[in-house]
Structure prediction request, 1040 residues.
Amino acid sequence: MQIDFNCDMGESFGPYSFGADEELMRYITSANVAGGFHAGDPHVMRKTVALAKEHGVAVGIHNGYRDLVGFGRVEMSVTPEEVHDELIYQLGALREFARYYDMEVQHVKPHASLYMTAARDEEISRAIIEAIQKVDPDLVIYCMRASATYEVAKKMDQPVATEFFADRDYNDEGQIVFTRKVTDELDPEEVGDRVVRGLTEGKVTTVNGNDIDIPSDSVCVHSDTPGAATLAEAIVRKLGENDIEVRPLGRAEQRVGSRE
Amino acid sequence: MQIDFNCDMGESFGPYSFGADEELMRYITSANVAGGFHAGDPHVMRKTVALAKEHGVAVGIHNGYRDLVGFGRVEMSVTPEEVHDELIYQLGALREFARYYDMEVQHVKPHASLYMTAARDEEISRAIIEAIQKVDPDLVIYCMRASATYEVAKKMDQPVATEFFADRDYNDEGQIVFTRKVTDELDPEEVGDRVVRGLTEGKVTTVNGNDIDIPSDSVCVHSDTPGAATLAEAIVRKLGENDIEVRPLGRAEQRVGSRE
Amino acid sequence: MQIDFNCDMGESFGPYSFGADEELMRYITSANVAGGFHAGDPHVMRKTVALAKEHGVAVGIHNGYRDLVGFGRVEMSVTPEEVHDELIYQLGALREFARYYDMEVQHVKPHASLYMTAARDEEISRAIIEAIQKVDPDLVIYCMRASATYEVAKKMDQPVATEFFADRDYNDEGQIVFTRKVTDELDPEEVGDRVVRGLTEGKVTTVNGNDIDIPSDSVCVHSDTPGAATLAEAIVRKLGENDIEVRPLGRAEQRVGSRE
Amino acid sequence: MQIDFNCDMGESFGPYSFGADEELMRYITSANVAGGFHAGDPHVMRKTVALAKEHGVAVGIHNGYRDLVGFGRVEMSVTPEEVHDELIYQLGALREFARYYDMEVQHVKPHASLYMTAARDEEISRAIIEAIQKVDPDLVIYCMRASATYEVAKKMDQPVATEFFADRDYNDEGQIVFTRKVTDELDPEEVGDRVVRGLTEGKVTTVNGNDIDIPSDSVCVHSDTPGAATLAEAIVRKLGENDIEVRPLGRAEQRVGSRE
Prediction:
């Protein structure tokens, strides 16, 4: 059994450092690289791609709203057309750094509020996937299983990776509870067990105490969750103990098929 | 005889319109597309590439300093490494829109203060050309003949296009006099004659009244020069009257050789 | 009978010119000066305050969301606390330029999406008015009569000016229909008559053809409505023909009382 | 004997934390509050002013170039007029938060590259001081004794505070060696002794080993110098041991006169 492990990376900006990228890169297999709109800058982007290459980690574009001060966590009524154009811009920037280091771009993962907006808005999801299909149909789109993004991707035959969020609560509909605040410190062992159960049993317990199905292609930890690197270590260790191999999904043409 | 005709394009931003792109695109053969740092945004970039395609105009990245309020005309002591990384970022963004419209990127032309800084600073020029050679060695770099950029490009075997500025004054060293202000209205017939003479005789008269050699691969008009479209019309008309064909340079692999 | 006439001003930015400020300033009595978040910059702000002074026009802060590319027209889920802090910042900037030219700040008018959000959100309205009451309780807050902003202002005893939008359609609830697009060209005579009727009869006809009450302290025209200066001229001329004097509201301590 | 102790504060931005403001505020007497152009945002500015008030620390505007990614450390050929307007804008923003907390603004201290540019450029210094004299002549301008800013301030009768930089090297001309990089860790005891000597003897040893005169009204430590809070503690302790009282300068009308 295999699983991808993704994390947001490259969210430093100019003089400002953010996230334990160097530590986390040792555990993850796919890096969602900030595109410069919600965080990141060209220098940070290059360093992040170089770091990913060094660790054999695949890269994808983490495209966010143009909202630096709110870190892309502010909901914005940006039109589908603007989301589409801003994705192409950020994706191209990343692809050029990937080319610089002789790598390929593996995936697209919208950031924070854009991710959540797309999850409930078919038009935004379609704008994202149309952009992908126009420039590089082999890119995998990351999303929640319980989302409009997933439904639209399936309808449009776009390769998709469903995510298991290790550090977020789920509601009974299978959606994570989005927050603009940093979450509380979590217990690494509990988080690791939760992930293992999510992958082996395909279940997660919601905030209401119910068990729901959660078919997943990738585990996600947020780099600004307190103790993220410790969580990542525990997750990878427990996955190993349960004979689950952690490795990148690969681009569509290389994939062995999603778990569904 | 042939000549390329380039112009800065895509410098609108959000609600703000800038330059007579639609009119100018009818006359030029190479569009320097603003990269989003000194001007432009993703939506404007896409529209500009689409417009270029419609008119058979080649596109290149017009990479500027990160200075929106100063329109990239402020000199900035940005390090060579930052210039290098910011070029890759902006170039990638443009390349993705080119890919979107099934086009190729033809060239790199630094904008305003960055152009002038590179012209006198070998290190900055080298940073730009190293970035190009790493990601796409067939890109042509635009510069003045009398510049460090030209010298470094020659030394590094990078395809180069030297420019004849139709709407700027020259000093005796063959450099244009850079200005942060919009220039005065120019007489289209005079400008056209000046260009024709520059190409047929290879000479231009400087601000001091001297004639200097000005070997050129491309004519440039700035989109914010008052009456830019009228100037462009006059230039193309006069070039035609003198049997000089206006056409894009092409990427390095397609070029028939520069005029030198 | 008297009425105030307000217009958004100072929305140029760096190299980008926006709105016919010089022409409009001849007709209006209150200028809503862009605070630099959705539009405007320090240089533009100073020039705008100078122009207002020259024409005897009162100034107020036009505070918008931090959204330059969307011109503050994008809805943003910014917290009340952030709206509060961003208002104080922008208000202070304007007050310093007013001080520079020996003027006072008269009013606060939130811009575009922030105006519309406040109109339906008590918490956002309260955050705005709390900021005002903390730093300068004599500032007048501009809003629609049919808005949460009006209700909260009344509850908090904050001086308020209700607006009649000359260039926007009304729904039956007395709210304007907000648009991110530039409106169509309007007939100046019709607009002038509509304003005169709005002030003399206190009525406006909605998009559904119904007449509703529209008690107003100030008329508003948007500077980017096509032909705004022509509309403004017609409005002022028709008001004059109907013996309605156009003059600034004044700060709370100078006001003769709102029309209600 | 008395001395002021100033430090850059409020340089966090949105999600990005910067500097040990809370610890440092316990030692310093004057806070240079980032104006939002090189760092800081409205929320951070309000929190910083509140923190200063809580600790009885005076506030001044720390106005920088509009260069977030370069943290105001990039040299920019911004015109004197723009520097003038941008100072007024940032100063007004700070003054409004001071008003919010019933405080006064004490001083102006340009940041990083703007500070160094002003130090060698009379025109920029004059633009800054003209702005101050127009809006609030009692503001104290901080500068190096060996600077154009000092000379211009004296010529224009502007109250000035000369600085002793505890964490920077001096050249023989009495100017600090500016760096875009973070400095190495310094020994707190040595730094404290250096400050005490600077104040009691009025001397500092330069990078060339020479002793020069360094008359000072205020000691400065940079908040991003490694171990800044430890340095600050050592400085205040050693000053106390030498009977030098640390207290704010006060605005011009409250000052007992500079040390010269």
Q: What stands out?
A: The first helix of chain A runs from residue 21 to 24. Chain A touches chain D at residues 13-18, 39, 41, 68-71, 224 (CB under 8 Å).
